[in-house]
Amino acid sequence: MKKICVYCGSSPGRRPEYLAATEALAEELVRRDIGLVYGGAGIGIMGAMADAVVARGGHVTGIIPHALANREVVHSGLNELRVVGSMHERKALMEDVSDGFIALPGGLGTLEELFEILTWSQLGFHRKPCGLLNVAGYYDGLIRFLDHTVAEELVADQYRKMLLQAEDPAQLLTQMENYQAPAMDERLSKSAR
């Protein structure tokens, strides 16, 4: 893995553990010589993530739509900034240049990006690892819900297992490095409808 896309909040959140985990993930990415790809903003957990990687000498690629860049939330200290026309272009380019995806704590945008990239994997559009960094139990409810979708036979277990999870950045990155994408079902599964 050369580049990891990190989805995360444009707010810092209320727990100091979120920013501490951001620092720990940045340190682990730089230690493993993995570049950061992210949404290009200089605010919230997003800005803290980019700052932490840059401060440690790592490489950061920001990808931001014109509409957000024009609102002056763009991070000014990145190694590389790509300004695109839309959110759709942003997500497609993030997928194209990244070797894997991690969700830190975040809001609706983070969840939307995570589930879209996970769905793309389920449908065979990519075979890259996707993971949750479950900081201070932030994603516990989501993990229980995903397990519930399997119990209700709306998501196949092989697709549920595509979403890796850990509380520690080093453990999550090791899982991602060892990830084997599941064999694709030739039929359109119930969960892809």
Explain the overall architecture.
By secondary structure, the protein is α/β, with parallel strands linked by helices. The protein has one domain: Rossmann fold. It has 8 helices and 7 strands, in the order βαβαβαβαβαβααβα. The chain has helices spanning 16-31, 44-55, 66-69, 87-97, 108-122, 140-151, 157-160, 169-177, and strands spanning 3-7, 35-38, 60-65, 80-84, 100-103, 130-133, 163-166. It has a 7-stranded parallel β-sheet, with helices on both faces. Strand 3 (60-65), helix 3 and strand 4 (80-84) form a beta-alpha-beta unit. Helix 1 runs parallel beside helix 2 (44-55). The protein is globular, with a radius of gyration of 16 Å. It starts with a strand and ends in a 16-residue tail after the last helix. The model is unreliable at 188-193 (pLDDT under 50).
Overall helicity? 40-55%
Largest sheet: 7 strands, parallel
Order of helices and strands: EHEHEHEHEHEHHEH
Shape: globular
- The portion of residues forming beta strands comes to 15-25%
Number of helices: 8
Compute the average pLDDT: 93
Q: Give the CA-CA distance, first to last residue.
A: 31 Å
CATH level 3 topology: Rossmann fold
Report the top-level CATH class: Alpha Beta
Strand order of the largest sheet: 4-3-2-1-5-6-7
Integer count of domains? 1
- The CATH architecture is 3-Layer(aba) Sandwich
Radius of gyration: 16 Å
